């Protein structure tokens, strides 16, 4: 990393830059992490959340998608992938301390692991912060616009619910989204998109794809 006189405290860093992670954590306000598939599929390694948490335990990071052409773009799959991958890396880093059996609960290891709440915040409130929108959205708070996602926790595949945060971060997917409200207006309600002709959108997307491929 070259020396600079720039004020980097408001800079949003998209990639962790490997060995420069500590320098970035000291200089940059927030990191935006890719969770899983894009980097792994292209041989770019894994997101450094676990290492970042050891270097700067209270450092904020948000969750993002980089290459939607080779993976899904929903936050549910990204949260689950990040949660499982980082816990796996934590276990691999200290397998003796993290060994779980029916006779041994590795409490010390678990205390240092990524949590479902941390993952959910990375996908919601920290995403709003990273995009400069925290004053308007990202949390359900007085004075902010009504951006709300209603999830169906009565589905047989996720019920009965015990831990809502853990359920959202590790077990749900887009099929559990019942309704979505943006700034007080429903964009999805009772499982169906509002004001969107899905068939027309798909037809236009397919025509655009064919046109691009036809020029190759």
UniProtKB/TrEMBL annotation:
Alphabetized Pfam families for the sequence: Amidohydro_1 (PF01979)
Statement: the UniProt record of this protein carries the keyword Hydrolase: yes
MF annotations from Gene Ontology: hydrolase activity, acting on carbon-nitrogen (but not peptide) bonds
Transmembrane feature ranges: none
Domain of life: Bacteria
Sequence ranges assigned to domain Amidohydrolase-related in this UniProt record: 74-185
InterPro entries registered for this protein in UniProt: Amidohydro-rel, Metal-dep_hydrolase_composite, Metal_Hydrolase, MTA/SAH_deaminase
Signal sequence annotation: none
Keywords: Hydrolase
Family: Belongs to the metallo-dependent hydrolases superfamily. ATZ/TRZ family.
Protein name as annotated: Amidohydrolase family protein
Lineage: Bacteria, Pseudomonadati, Pseudomonadota, Alphaproteobacteria, Rhodobacterales
């Amino acid at each position: 990393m070259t020396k600079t006189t720039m004020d980097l405290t408001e800079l949003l860093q998209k990639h962790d830059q490997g060995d420069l992670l500590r320098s970035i954590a000291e200089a940059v306000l927030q990191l935006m992490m890719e969770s899983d598939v894009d980097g792994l599929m292209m041989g770019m390694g894994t997101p450094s959340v676990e290492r970042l948490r050891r270097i700067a335990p209270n450092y904020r990071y948000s969750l993002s998608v980089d290459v939607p052409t080779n993976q899904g773009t929903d936050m549910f799959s990204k949260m689950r992938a990040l949660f499982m991958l980082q816990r796996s890396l934590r276990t691999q880093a200290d397998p003796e301390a993290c060994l779980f059996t029916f006779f041994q609960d590795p409490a010390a290891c678990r205390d240092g692991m990524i949590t479902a709440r941390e993952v959910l915040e990375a996908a919601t409130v920290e995403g709003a912060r990273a995009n400069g929108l925290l004053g308007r959205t990202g949390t359900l708070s007085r004075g902010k616009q009504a951006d709300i996602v209603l999830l169906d926790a009565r589905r047989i595949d996720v019920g009965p619910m015990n831990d809502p945060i853990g359920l959202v971060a590790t077990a749900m997917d887009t099929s559990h989204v019942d309704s979505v409200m943006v700034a007080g207006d429903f964009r999805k309600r009772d499982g169906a998109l509002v004001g969107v002709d899905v068939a027309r959108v798909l037809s236009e997307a397919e025509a655009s794809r064919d046109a691009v491929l036809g020029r190759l």
